[in-house]
Each structure stands twice: as C-alpha cells, then as structure tokens.
C-alpha cells in the first residue's frame, strides 16, 4: 500500500517563489498568481523555487539516459528556471484524450519507462523536493516519483500512429521520493477514474460511464504490474494523500493550496475519497492478475 507523504515541520519545508516576468513575444501558458508560466522561445519559464535545481538535475539525468518524454533542462537563472517546450496537446484538452484503452496503455508504458530510468539515479548533490524530502529514497523500492502524472500533464501528438501518440510528461514541480505505486496510484485515480460523473464526463469528456476495472487491467498489463489489492490500495491512498497534502500545505501558507481550499477544491477531493470508500468493494481483486514482467 502506498504511504502518504510526510510533510514534516514547517521549518524544513522550502519557501516558494512566484516571480516570473513575461517579456515581449512571450506566450502566457499559465496565468496563476502563485505560479505564472510563460513560453519564452523554445523554453518554458517557471518561477524559481528552492527545489528548482533538483528538478533540473532530474531532467538532466533523464535526458542523459535517453528518456525523451520529459522536457530538457534549460537552467536556473535569476528568479526563474527554464525547461524545453514539448510541442503537442496538453492541459485541459489533453484530459479528453485518455478515453481509449490505447491511451491508457500508453500512459502506463511511459510511466514504466520513466521509473526504470530513474530508479538507479544517485546524484552527487543531494536533491531537495517541494515537500521537504531529500535524496532519491533510502528504502528498498523507493525512487523519485513524478508526483503529478495526471492527464493534464500529458502531451499528445495526434499526427503519430495510434499507440505512439503520447510524447511528453510535463510539470515536474511535485517530484519527490515515493515508490512506483505512488505514481501508479495517482495516475489510475484520474485515469480509471475513481471519481464520479462530474469528472469522467465533465473533465475527461467520456460519453458513457467508464469500465473502471477494465481500464485498471489495461493499465496494469501495459505497465507490467499485478492487478491486485496492493494496486487498488495505491489508488485509494493516492486520493487520501492528495487531501492531506492540500490541508498540510495550506496550513503552511502555500498560495496554491490556500486558493484551492478557498475555491472549494478540498471539499471536492474529499467527496472523491468518500465516493471511493463507498465503492471500495467493487474494485477489490479487480479482474485477473498479470505477471510482473508481462
């Protein structure tokens, strides 16, 4: 079962920065006050944070290892850090592109490739992450997770053949130490999805109720993980961890989480937790098991 992140005392958590100034010719990609993001030529410019150098180091490792679905690091300069722009469809529109089995399988395969590349990463300089965790994991099975592999952070190129259209995984600001199941649980939470109609129809654009157990089985087979109680527990734990993290970071004054709670997002996420709890029995031992290396 996936463990929730321990955010630790406030004194150990890095402080955030929100300074990014658009220059002439820049394209605003995200206008949030807490995290403005602009496209500057072929670079995406984010506000600099204390963990920016760690994310840059992670992206450099991925690039050196031949993982081509992550942005290339562009360096940290002044009050911003840059990464390469990946052409394609992302954000809200990308959420509508995960309806098919083929898309679910592509997400699983990309996540598996990332985990395989990152699991042996041992940088010379100890990284520090957004939640105060350090390093790359000191326990068996731990690695650096993407932390936010939701449909909105995928990049698709629909000019490519079906089954080869997923070309990017972006927004690495929530990278931190976890396990493979940490990322898998998060991804399945929003892909299966274990949420009500307001999400699967309103966000993913699915015309009919999703076959959740089937979609979980497709993901499990494509990734090469057993579809068992541990996998179901990981999805449930991801939902619970998301709620707790929002509460903890808001208590520490993180602008994004404060704004989300003010907008009612905490109640929506708690409803998702409650929705899953009422239906937990439907996902127990879902489908058949798949050999780990399938």
What's the gist of this structure?
With 294 residues, the protein is α+β, with helices and mostly antiparallel strands.
Global structural class: alpha+beta
What is the helix fraction of residues, given as a range? 25-40%
Q: Over the alpha carbons, how many angstroms does the gyration radius reach?
A: 18 Å
Tally of alpha and pi helices: 9
Main sheet: strand order: 1-2-3-5-4
Q: Provide the β-strand percentage band.
A: 5-15%
**Uncertain regions: pLDDT < 50 for 5+ in a row?**
1-13, 286-294
Number of domains: 2
Number of strands: 9
Morphology:
globular
* SSE pattern: EEEHEEHHEEEEHHHHHH
Q: Fill in the CATH topology of the largest domain.
A: Aminoglycoside 3'-phosphotransferase, Chain: A, domain 2
Oligomer: single chain
End-to-end Cα distance: 21 Å
Sketch the major β-sheet: 5 strands, antiparallel
CATH architecture of the largest domain: Alpha-Beta Complex
Mean pLDDT: 88
CATH class of the largest domain: Alpha Beta
């Amino acid at each position: 079962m996936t463990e929730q992140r321990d955010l630790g005392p406030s004194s150990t958590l890095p402080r955030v920065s929100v300074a990014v100034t658009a220059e002439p010719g820049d394209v605003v990609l995200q206008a949030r006050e807490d995290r403005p993001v602009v496209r500057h030529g072929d670079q995406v410019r984010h506000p600099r944070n204390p963990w920016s150098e760690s994310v840059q180091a992670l992206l450099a490792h991925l690039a050196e290892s031949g993982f081509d679905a992550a942005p290339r690091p562009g360096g940290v300069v002044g009050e911003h850090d840059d990464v390469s722009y990946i052409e394609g469809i992302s954000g809200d529109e990308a959420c509508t592109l995960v309806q098919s089995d083929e898309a679910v399988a592509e997400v699983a395969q990309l996540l598996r490739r990332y985990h395989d590349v990152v699991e042996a990463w041992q940088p010379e300089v100890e990284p520090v992450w957004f939640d105060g965790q350090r390093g790359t994991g000191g326990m068996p099975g731990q690695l650096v997770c993407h932390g936010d592999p939701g449909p909105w952070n995928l990049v698709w190129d629909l000019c490519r053949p079906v089954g080869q259209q997923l070309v990017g995984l972006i927004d690495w600001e929530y990278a931190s130490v976890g396990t493979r199941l940490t990322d898998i649980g998060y991804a399945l939470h929003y892909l299966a999805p274990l949420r009500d109609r307001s999400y699967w129809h309103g966000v993913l654009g699915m015309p009919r109720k999703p076959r959740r157990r089937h979609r979980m089985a497709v993901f499990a087979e494509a990734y090469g993980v057993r579809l068992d109680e541990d996998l179901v527990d990981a999805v449930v734990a991801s939902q619970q961890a998301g709620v707790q993290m929002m509460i903890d970071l808001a208590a520490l004054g993180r602008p994004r989480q404060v704004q989300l709670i003010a907008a009612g997002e905490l109640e929506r996420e708690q409803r998702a937790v409650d929705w899953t709890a009422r239906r937990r029995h439907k996902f127990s031992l879902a489908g058949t098991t798949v050999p780990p290396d399938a």
